[in-house]
Write a structure and sequence with these properties.
The protein is of the alpha+beta class. The chain contains 12 helices and 8 strands. The strands form 2 sheets. Strands 1-4-5-8 form a 4-stranded mixed sheet, covered by helices on one side. A 4-stranded antiparallel sheet has the order 2-3-7-6, covered by helices on one side. It starts with 8 loop residues before the first helix and ends in a 7-residue tail after the last helix.
Length: about 400
Amino acid sequence: MALDFEPTEEQQLIRQSIRKAMEPFLAKREEIMHSVMAEKKFPQELWEAMADTGVFGCLIPEEYGGTDLGLLTMTLALEELATLGFGNAMIVTTQMDTSCILRNGSEEMKKRFLPGIADGSLKFAFAITEPDAGSNSFRLKTVARREGDHYVLNGQKTFITGAEVADWMLVVVRTTPVEELEAKGMSKMMGISLFVLDPRSPGIDLKPIPTRGIEGMAQWTVFFDDVNVPADQMVGEEGMGSMSMFNSLNPERILAAALACGMTQFVLDKACKYARERKVFKDRPIGAYQAIQHPLADSRIGLDAARLLTWRSAWAFDKQLPPATVGHYANAAKYTAAELVINAVDRAIETHGGYGFSEEYQIIYLWEAARLIRTAPISKEMILNYFAEHVLDLPRSY
């Protein structure tokens, strides 16, 4: 089988459209980055400019208002956005929920939500993490009980990004408690269901968590107290949400890797420009010193590796390869890109010396964002656990 690593002409045009759409914002990038990183103000202008390119419809078929260009094209577009210094986690959460609705939702649900996602009028959050579950997605305690034509949700989620900005939220709950599954000798993977709900519904209370590193949003603990959700807002079948969930989680990891790749390119561009111009000893720029050159060159080599993994994982998703195969590449891409971007930002700061800590040079804004990607949306350690057990066939460690 022939291998072609060049983006298609259409994908190249999408990248160009992203760059053109962002041109008006480049002159005020420092102001925007301060607003989104320090003041946590959502960049609605940037969101609308992105929406005008049509890129939010990449995963969505034309019959629902999308372009059907696939996750790979969306990945390239998000990487391009981050290369310009404008990452956006709400794009990640919205697109990951899009893939779940598209592959698992009813026809009515697709018609209801996908056109709004495609034109940028709808934003989605994703709610799975719980205080006592953390990375263990099957230990959920938030429950949904059916009562006639609706479900009643009770419990809580935590570290939910952008709940205050999102129009809708994809929530992972248990419709069969773990204790009941154990009593019946059933797998803990069963009994999980997914719902789309309005985060402003009666019975929902949002409490902010004072975290940093998210672009223009906060993270929240979300409390559900007898929240009524219509039964037709369940995604897929009751109790069968585990596999549906991975139609969100794999794209999430792929898009997180794309953000990391774009962020790496952004800081390398900044560091190299500075290194070509900055002179300290005589008339030789610091970029001539191997102590400056080699770390940056090492990061650039790593960027090629991370990009190839990221693009391959998105390609595998678009080809609808088995979730385990997509998960293999998605986890590898996220791990590689996260480690890369941390080193790249650190090296860019070191290249700039004291100026690396100045908001004027913008790099320091990305230090927290880069470090966050190692831990979220899945930690470095959980990815290593996955590869040890499922790829190397080593005994389960937890």
